[in-house]
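Blinded run. Sample ID left blank on purpose so nobody reads anything into the name before looking at the predicted structure. Input follows.
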Amino acid sequence: MKRVLILFAHPKFEQSRTNKALVQKVNNREGVTFHDLYERYPDFNIDVSLEKKLLERHDVVVWHHPFYWYNCPPLMKQWIDVVLEFGWAYGPQGNALETKKCLNVITTGGSRDIYCSEGNNHYSVNEFLRPFEQTARLCGMQYLPPFAVMGTHKLSTQELNHHTHQYELLMDFLQKDMPVGDVENCAFLNDMPELNKNNAT
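Blinded prediction complete.
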């Protein structure tokens, strides 16, 4: 079974109904390490050595965060800046992360239809996430499409339950290391048929 590291960054986690529900489904799950960056580093003083050891012990890296101004919260950016060092994560002899899988799990207040060329935000979520994709590729990682829960302010209880169930199934998919060839053509992992089966909502 593959080991999954969820790097979670939400500066207002206690106010997020959606993220609370998502985290509840994966926290304390066997084979999954839930790592809350704001809880661990309230002073932004990241223990680089510890973070590298965590990365080395896991096969899949998940950047789980709200979509703040088309990006991640500042502590996650700080984590990327200081942990993914030249000569370790990339560059000559920088192969510590090669072959690992990586993806973003994001929540947005805006609905899916406004993230397109015709929408208010003009660009797709995938286009906004290009820096994450390129970061993963530079480090020799296999970047997967994002898992996105969108329009969070208007989600019904049934819709939220659907997304949390999908998140559980996504962990199954990642831990069992299922083939990913088909998903590379998906805009979001949410669209995978495997994440829309046997949903009891």
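Unblinding after everyone has recorded impressions. Helices lie at 17-26, 37-40, 48-56, 74-83, 125-128, 130-138, 157-175.
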